[in-house]
Design a protein that fits this description.
It is a single chain. By secondary structure, this protein is α/β, with parallel strands linked by helices. The strands form two sheets. It has a five-stranded mixed β-sheet with strand order 6-5-4-8-7. The chain has a three-stranded antiparallel β-sheet with strand order 1-3-2. Strand 2 and strand 3 form a beta hairpin. It is elongated. It starts with 8 loop residues before the first strand and ends with a helix.
């Protein structure tokens, strides 16, 4: 068996097409070539840190899973806080995924607005996971300010406004899909501008 020709991510369903048995996979795990990242999913060792490995597993099992809130804020460089866990949204009514080695905070967002502002974030195995845009992340922080607090939302909005090319008008346009958040965002923009 040629380790170099194996994909970076393996599942039990891939074994037959790769000429690999479960026993052969067990040997790859025992030798340290692959590691279990989720039930039935195995990643080439050393390819990713624990958090990124969890994102790879989640993306493989829940293609609609989307990085959100503080995790998205950090990826958009709109906070100095380092997330202690990954905030990941799934559409309300769907189930989260079991992953190993990394703390995940699951959030269930309304299916009707779930895809508003949803983009993709590339992962080291060549796959991608959903990521909310900076504007959508700001809207979610204002929308959920009762749980997250005003300070995080206002601080992120201030940083976002300082970045070249960001338009308060585009933020307010996107916020029209979230009527409970729009007035708070509009008020904050009026104060800051």
């Amino acid at each position: 068996m040629y380790i170099a020709t194996m994909p970076d991510l393996l599942s039990y369903n891939d074994l037959g097409s790769r000429g690999l048995t479960r026993h052969g996979l067990d040997r790859l795990i025992e030798s340290g070539e692959f590691e279990r990242i989720s039930p039935g999913l195995f990643l080439r060792s050393g390819l990713a840190d624990d958090t990124t490995a969890a994102w790879i597993a989640i993306a493989a099992k829940r293609p609609d899973a989307t990085l959100c809130l503080l995790t998205a804020l950090s990826l958009h460089e709109l906070t100095d806080e380092i997330p202690a866990r990954s905030d990941i949204a799934v559409p309300r009514g769907t189930q989260p995924v079991t992953v190993h080695h990394a703390p995940i905070a699951w959030h269930r967002f309304d299916a009707d607005t779930f895809n508003v502002g949803r983009t993709e974030h590339a992962l080291p195995d060549g796959s991608s996971i959903g990521l909310y845009s900076a504007e959508r992340t700001l809207i979610d922080l204002f929308r959920l300010r009762h749980a997250w607090g005003n300070d995080i939302a206002l601080g992120a909005l201030k940083q976002w406004l300082r970045q070249r090319g960001n338009s308060p008008g585009s933020l307010l346009t996107m916020a029209e899909d979230f009527p409970k958040a729009r007035p708070a965002i509009q008020h904050a923009l009026e104060v800051l501008l």
